[in-house]
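Input record (one chain):
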Amino acid sequence: MHKSIDLPPPPPLAELAARNPLALFLDFDGTLVEIADTPDGIHVPDGLPAQLVALRRALDGRIAIVSGRAIADIQSWLGPIDLLMVGSHGAEIGEPATGAAILSDASRAALAALTAAWPRLLVETKPHGIAVHYRPEPEAAPAVFTVMDDMAAREGLAARRGKMVVELGPKSANKGAAVARLMAAPPFADAQPIFIGDDRTDEDGFVAVATAGGHGILVGAPHPTAADYRLADPEAVHRWLML
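The corresponding structure, as predicted from the sequence alone:
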């Protein structure tokens, strides 16, 4: 059920943890770090990796980053920390994938024509798909939508629209399915799940944790969502995560 009204902030994390064992699922861009103009332009706060490791200890391992980025990409930003990661919208769980998605000649030609017409678009190749970021050229959005939707149909993939990005990936992979899979096994099983995210692609995660008796926390401006609570920005998320 989507809620269109503004949402209250969540109860303090320590208060929730005192009531029930908790499992935390955290988006990355827009949730743990501020969104940047390009994927490589983000800034990771100095204390964030250590804070995540401390949370892992406090929650007996029941924490995971669930991101649209590839796992190897997340690891390159957070360093060698002992933390479960889910990448590529759930297509990678635990272990980074290798290689790059293979597209047909027709799709490669369509993508080349798109970037020739809009040269400031940023194309990001991932192990399980490809993303086109149009933040540098917002006026290209209709063309990006058309080309990526056509490519998705041709390749048998799903086209996911996020904040100034369209990404192609496996139809079976989404953040909600990944959360449900993790919640079915230790150490997450029988805990109350909390999913924190900011984008349309996080809505599947909000629905999954609600189905399991947990709560979604939206980050950013109010908009229709399946989340129960809202935090203003990544800085507010960092404050809330302090046990």
